[in-house]
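Table 4 source record.
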Amino acid sequence: MYFLFLLPVLALAGIGILVRRRAELWGNILIGVACAGCVGLIVWQARETVFAGDNRIPPQDAIALNSVLTGVVQQELRGRGGAVLLVFPDEKVLKEEALENYRNSFRGIFLRGHPELSVETARLKPAAKGASPTAAELKTLISQTPKVIAVVSYAGVASDIDQAFAVGAAGDPLFFVFDPQGTTSWLGALKRGVVRCVIVPRPDVDPAAQAGMAGMPAENFGKLYMMATPGNADQIAARLGGK
């Protein structure tokens, strides 16, 4: 996105230099506008870097998460064909760069050797920070994407999901969840099997201190995250403190 604005600014400066040979005043005006644009872009880039917070997810962390998540999804979907819908929060919560890191690492691992599967992407509408997608929101996104057999939410999931979807019901996809807020709103749906697995950050790890760590993806996963399944749902929820 940054370069989409940088190129026109540089082009404007070049035009100003050419125009100044015949009309010095107008040339100087164009060059001045271009310089102001460059300053604005520098300020914008600095602000994104300093204040991005959790929005800038290092590629290594996304790979660590998806190295395990994709394996679980593939196992559950064995022998089936169709689309896997990746659901992300709105851009105020998760910037485009972070979304691309998650999406690209998931696609790169998941689709290898599986031509019968496809990966689609959807964003949620803006909501309160930390708000989980409701069953109604997920139903809307699923209806807009053909042949969805699984949904992977990177925004957690609301507790009403098992009221709208049933285990093994015809046409209902399987759900897999990454809950970056570390809540337990998914607990009932996971124990009933509507949600097949939930990944949460380890409560004893500071993500900022571990960001961009070196090492194998599976090893990094164990340092950063925990995975809840129907078999250990209560134990993971207890470690999270019932948030």
